[in-house]
Amino acid sequence: AQSVTQPDIHITVSEGASLELRCNYSYGATPYLFWYVQSPGQGLQLLLKYFSGDTLVQGIKGFEAEFKRSQSSFNLRKPSVHWSDAAEYFCAVGAHQAGTALIFGKGTTLSVSS
Amino acid sequence: DVKVTQSSRYLVKRTGEKVFLECVQDMDHENMFWYRQDPGLGLRLIYFSYDVKMKEKGDIPEGYSVSREKKERFSLILESASTNQTSMYLCASIREDNEQFFGPGTRLTVL
To answer: A77 to chain B, minimum CA–CA distance in Å?
Structure first.
């Protein structure tokens, strides 16, 4: 079955520290991969996406993610976290067929301590 | 700037009421989606539409219906609202490269 697992429900990181949010997927074919962020009371905003090519992708707000096919992972990283990064983060996987619905993980809530 | 809008940010309804949630996108996208979001459960797909007047059930369609009379508008209908439908509802449309664009969400409370 197709699924996305985000093992960490809640993570707390000190401001200025590095961040890694984990994402593992189970998918029958080569997937499209996405990370979205949701600030409190808001909709989801795309941080970055992987379709093909270079397995290290850069996104907005200083985020990056690395696709590792052998580990079925697409972990999100940021070298130095800012207080404004506190939000909920969702990993998602989709098919290469245009217009198909994404499958989302259950999300990881990031808190930033000062 | 691309945009998906939802008719209400917050909505309070009573059990048994018929509820309409409206979603409009201005990107001329073919496919649109309705999700509900609950703590610890992530986003779950209720219905999607791949063309005007076309619809498909998602993972949790029970208690919901949808309407797509125009390409830009996709409505979610709760025929008889129940307390277990209290949730955040997110609408999205999708580009050809499968990037989804989300509306701000409607937080529905059913009393």
So the answer is: 20
